[in-house]
Model the fold of this input.
Amino acid sequence: MTNAAAGETLLAVEEICLRFGGVQALSEVSFDIKRGEIRAIIGPNGAGKTSMLNVINGFYRPNRGVIRFRGQSFTRMRPGFAARNGIARTFQNVALFRGMTTLDNLMTGRTLKMKRGFFWQLLRYGPAMDEEIEHRRAVEEIIDFLEIEAIRRVPVGRLPYGLQKRVELGRALATEPELLLLDEPMTGMNLEEKEDMCRFILEVNAQFGMTIALIEHDMGVVMDLSNRVVVLDYGRKIADDAPAVVKQDPAVIAAYLGVAG
Amino acid sequence: MDLLYLIFVDPFVQMGQAPDLLVQTLWDGLVSGVLYALIALGFVLIYKASGVFNFAQGIMVVFAALTLVGLYAAGIPALPALALTVVIMLALAVAIERLVLRPLLNRPDIVLFMATFGLTYFLIGFGQLLFGGETKQMITRQLHLPQGAIDLHILDGLVTLQKIDIAAAVIASVMVASLAFVFQYTRIGRALRAVADSHRAALSVGISLNQIWVIVWFAAGVVALATGIMWGARSEVSFALEVVALKALPVLILGGFTSIPGAIVGGLIIGLSEKLFELYWGPLIGGGTEAWFAYVVALIVLLFRPHGLFGEVIIERI
Done:
């Protein structure tokens, strides 16, 4: 595990409140994500974990609260701004471009990095072609890293679920993010696939120094991977500490197992 | 026995006896197929990028053609009027994105579909207000489109090819080829396909939905303009064209809603088969088959290939 927990704050949410009609999805949730760490967000179903990620990358607009990112304060994020400023994410139920091949899915991750004009690209000549080749190289490196060479040309809709999750991670990596948000990266995977995914997450963190915030249900995975854990229950933060400490917290145990009386 | 003979043998005997008539019918079928394909192409573009069946595509064809003719009638020379019409189609795309699509973001597809109905009736009313409801002539000659016909003396007979039809086929092919190329090989094309597959995933990699929607609606507008010119040149420009545009529905069912090649092949099959059926089998049941035969073909295809000939097979996890 890296010792990055002592680093500076990359992103912080402060007193975030989010309501859908009468449902309070998040109430006054505050926590921070430090540069270089792996931060886990856990909690029972319906605790507001995915809502929190959606607030961070701008899909949801919080009713109250502040998001601090790289020292700037925002009352809301916007998905375009988040993507341009190095926040990438994956989705709980896999949101891939099903009709496209693995390669094309990853290439869409490079969209924001392509600068050459449309007409150059049409000509497939000169600077635009050089650019295409350069991005292709970056994408091929990710393909190698994730060990998905064999499915490069396969439309992703045909891939098994575990591989789709891997391609989705690849697409997020292709944007070269500073902060990677992973929404349940291991659901629906068998043990072997989970181990692979854990390895990729650790390597991304260690080799590229990428900061990662992940939602996960598998407690074993959370304990192995993360530096710090924030626990949500019914939209409130009930614990925020190192995994070993959180595991012993009576409030957390109560939230997961229920309390008598 | 007589009936079986009339259905299965006699039509082919007729084809053999008058090969020039057969070739003429095939040609006519191909030409109307090209026009169906062009209309279907407009639908496919928007369906691919936003998952919406754009009911307004037909009226966009009429609106584009009327704008062109109207600008010319107002004293603007033909080619500048054409350029100006393209600009107006761009303005229409921007307006649709701002006023219709953006407020309805993240709503169910059926809501957007209904919105295109609203758009249809708005454009009918707006078009009639601006240009009046009467039928107009397309400015074919002024646009330097070829007129007249080529007579081929082949097969001991005469086959007539209208030059405008040849032009339509050429223009359609160029449009289709360039659209397919853009979709496949450019960043914008990749972004278009991405938006079609998943809005939220597209947003998460920084693709702007607003920009993409303007682009596809504009592209559909330009396709509509081309269709309007070609169709107008063969008959005339009137609001009745809007109904013809619904012929694109069987074409789309046949070709698959998401496939550009499907739109083309579907259009050609429908065009050819309805002309052949009308001429050789139509008399057996009193004629008038062109109005419905396309739908029968589409139905038969659906029985065997529910996603159309070229559509993406969607496998859902349940």
